[in-house]
UniProtKB/TrEMBL annotation:
Domain of life: Eukaryota
Entry-linked CDD domains: DD_NDKH5-like (cd22970), NDPk5 (cd04418)
Boundaries of every Nucleoside diphosphate kinase-like domain copy: 12-150
Organism: Grus americana
Protein name according to UniProt: Nucleoside diphosphate kinase homolog 5
Lineage: Eukaryota, Metazoa, Chordata, Craniata, Vertebrata
Length: 212
């Protein structure tokens, strides 16, 4: 009896991660943990926010008792902003972060990033978006030049792969088998660049008018 395997599904999310000012010196160490946890760092920049910019970023917290201390803390030095991508990025990043209060995190989630790098409820080392809509707003805030196009999922993703990716990849793999190069990965990468169907084509045509 033939076993019917479910079609592979592609669900990719993006979320915003911030390495806060007091742990910027741990940037490389934290990034290594992020990558080893299955995330792709799509965008990254180091910047320092003014108190006004921090107020705008945390506008949903305005009016709370800790708000002035929060904006002062977040504007006290440079921070690192990153766009992370993976399956269920928002929830996985929140899980990796642990509770917002670092003291509580050390009790209940001792292996979480906030337990390891955070100090207390305010200085908790890292930020993560609460949900997908918050992630979109926060990514746009930190990376205003980025165009957040919807990532295909489900049937749209399969249609995209079948139409644009598989034909070119199949041709490249066929050529690879015929060529049998010593370094197949580099050869295939070069082949895909050369045969990219969406590669811009620049035409420099000289006409008689250009010489008149």
């Amino acid at each position: 009896m033939q076993v019917l395997m479910p079609q592979p599904q592609i669900f990719v999310e993006r979320t915003l991660a911030l390495i806060k000012p007091d742990v910027v010196d741990k940037e490389e160490e934290i990034e290594d943990l992020i990558l080893r946890s299955g995330f792709l760092i799509v965008q990254k920049r180091k910047l320092q926010l003014s108190p006004e910019q921090c107020s705008n970023f945390y506008a949903d917290q305005y009016g709370k008792v800790f708000f002035p201390n929060l904006t002062a803390y977040m504007s006290s030095g440079p921070l690192v902003a990153m766009v992370l991508a993976r399956h269920c990025a928002v929830s996985y990043w929140k899980e990796l972060l642990g509770p917002s209060n670092s003291v509580r995190a050390r009790r209940t989630h001792p292996h979480s990033l906030r337990a390891i790098y955070g100090t207390d409820d305010l200085r908790n080392a890292l930020h993560g978006s609460l949900n997908i809509s918050s992630a979109e707003r926060e990514i746009q805030f930190m990376f205003p030049e980025v165009i957040l196009e919807p990532i295909p999922a489900g049937q749209r993703a399969r249609d995209y792969l079948n139409l644009y990716v598989k034909p070119t990849l199949l041709a490249g793999l066929t050529a690879l088998c015929k060529e049998k190069p010593a370094d197949p990965m580099t050869w295939l990468a070069d082949w895909l660049i050369e045969h990219n169907p969406n590669k811009p084509k620049l035409q420099h045509q000289t006409t008689e008018e250009e010489y008149q």
